[in-house]
Structure formats: C-alpha cells, structure tokens
Amino acid sequence: MGDMKASVHGVLVALLLGVLAPTWVVFSLAAEAAESEHVLGTILTGEPDPLFDEGYVPEAVETASFAMGCFWGADGLFGILPGVIRTRVGYAGGTTRGPSYYGIGDHAEAIQVDFDPSIITYDKLLELFAVSHDPYAPAYSTQYRSLILYHTEGQRQTAEAWIDRETAENGIRPLTEIVPFRTFTRAEGYHQKYHLQTDGRVPLVMAELLGEVENFDAFVDSTVAARLNGYLAGWATRGRLEREIGAFGLSEEAQAEALAATAP
Q1: 12-16, 215-219, 235-239: which has the highest mean pLDDT?
Q2: Which residue in 80, 124, 164, 250 is deepest, having the highest Cβ count within 10 Å?
Q3: Lowest mean pLDDT: which of 53-57, 151-155, 207-211?
C-alpha cells in the first residue's frame, strides 16, 4: 500500500474525542479508519488511472449514490478512486422540495459518483461505503443517516446481498436504508470539492481549474478536481500524485503547488 496514506481522519477524530467519548467510540472510529485504509489499498494499486490515458472515452458510465454522514469526507474519498469520473455532493433520500443546507428537511447529505464500471465496480464502491462509516450506529440526525440510493435493479440486489451478509455475520441488521434513487439536489457551492476549495496552499491550482471551465458546475464535475480534492483530503500520497499529475493539464507551477500541498 505504498500509494496509500494511512487514513488519519477517523484516528484523529478518535483522539480528539478521547476525553469526551466512551472508549468503545474511540476504538470504533479507529477501526473504521483502518478498514477504509485496507479497502483503499486494494484499489490504489499503483497502476496508472486509465481515465487519464490519451484518447480515453468510457464505453459506459454508471452512477452510484450514498449517504454516510458528512459529505465533505465522502467527496474526497470517492473522488480519489481510479475509474471515478465525477463526484458531487448534495441532498437526497427525502421528500422536501428545494432542500438546502439550512433547510434540508427530511433529506440526507449524500454523495453521487459517476464511474466507469470497466475500471471500478459498484461492488467495490459499496465495499468502501460500508467500511468508511458505521452502518450500525444510529445517526444523531436524519441529515447524517446511512442510505444506499440505488439507480438500477442490479444495484438494489447488490445492496440487499450486502445487508444479508452483514446480518448473518453480526447477528444484527445494519441501520442502512436501501431506497430507490429519486431526486438529488446539488449542495451549495462552498460544499463542493471542499478540501480543494478551502486549502489556501493551492491558489494557482484553483485559478487554473476554474479558468478552464464555463461555469462552477463544470468545475465540480471535473475529474481532475475530484482527484485533487481527494489528495488534499489525505486519501493518497504525494508519490502517487507525482506519477499522474502530468496528465492533469496543469502548468508546471500549479503542479508543484499541488505536490507541495499533498502529504508524503
């Protein structure tokens, strides 16, 4: 797993909660981080991402939608994956019309992922979803509940099979709801690619990415933006970025800026 940085997010949260939370909570968060690291390690193998091959055109594009707590982390986590073409965060799973962050109603914070199934499968995305949050823990708000929003009958069957396996192995059914995808409302701009937008070390990167697109939605839908958001969130190492950043279309100065901001 030389390309994978140990997922420090859950561990750091666990340490910060150490004086506030019961011991089982701390160990649960650390265990989630370790499991995410393991699954990511099976995906980030060191092979180049085919999406950045010259002339690449996907034969098919599928969409996956999940809710798993705060969507900032999920955006970076899924955005770093080879085969993921676009990510966006928003509100889904409810019936409230025109949801917003401060008027989310009965929706949940959700991540939507467009991917090439010949490179990464829905099964692998679901596996990463499953280990990157606790599907057995009650959400303290419906905004942060665990949801699988299926787009196809195949996705529904895969999700149901996962629920059945978890229930058989642990003797208790996950609290994750499996529901048909109906609507998705993009979250406000400041939530999109949060780590990339808020990292003050990469102003030139942001300027070049925004300068190459017609509008902000196109920036959000950029594969390069998805990857860099994942790197800046700490989901992969500088060594991996060094091997693929030349295909990102950035100037040498912007490449150097991104590399300097990425964890070793």
Answers
A1: 215-219
A2: 80
A3: 53-57
> What are the Cα distances from residue 152, in Å, to 75, 148, 185?
22, 12, 19
Residue 108 sits at φ, ψ, to 5 deg, of: -115, 155
Q: How far apart are the first and last CA of the chain?
A: 13
Cβ atoms 181, 90 nearer than 8 A: no
The answer as to CATH 3.90.190.20 being correct for domain 48-261 is no
- Where would I find the H helices in 49-144? 71-79, 122-131
pLDDT digits (tens, 9 = 90+) for 155-191: 999 999 999 999 999 999 999 999 999 999 999 999 9
Q: What are the residue numbers of the active site?
A: 70
Helices (H) and strands (E) in the chain, counts: 11, 6
Q: At what angle do helices 71-79 and 122-131 cross, to 10 degrees?
A: 140
For residue range 196-212, list pLDDT tens digits in order: 999 999 999 999 999 99
**CB-CB neighbours of 161 under 10 Å:** 12
Cα-based torsion angle of the residue sequence 58, 242, 225, 139 in order, rounded to the nearest 10 degrees:
100
Q: What is the pLDDT of residue 150?
A: 98
Question: In Å, what is the CA distance from 67 to each residue of 94, 147, 212, 230, 250?
Answer: 12, 5, 30, 18, 32
Q: What is the pTM of this model?
A: 0.88
R_g (Cα) of the chain, nearest Å: 18
Does the structure show a pLDDT above 60 at 63? Answer: yes
The answer to whether the beta carbons of residues 63 and 217 sit under 8 Å apart is no
Are 75 and 197 in contact, with CB atoms under 8 Å apart?
Answer: no
The pLDDT of residue 32? 62
Q: How many Å apart are CA 165 and CA 167, to the nearest integer?
A: 5
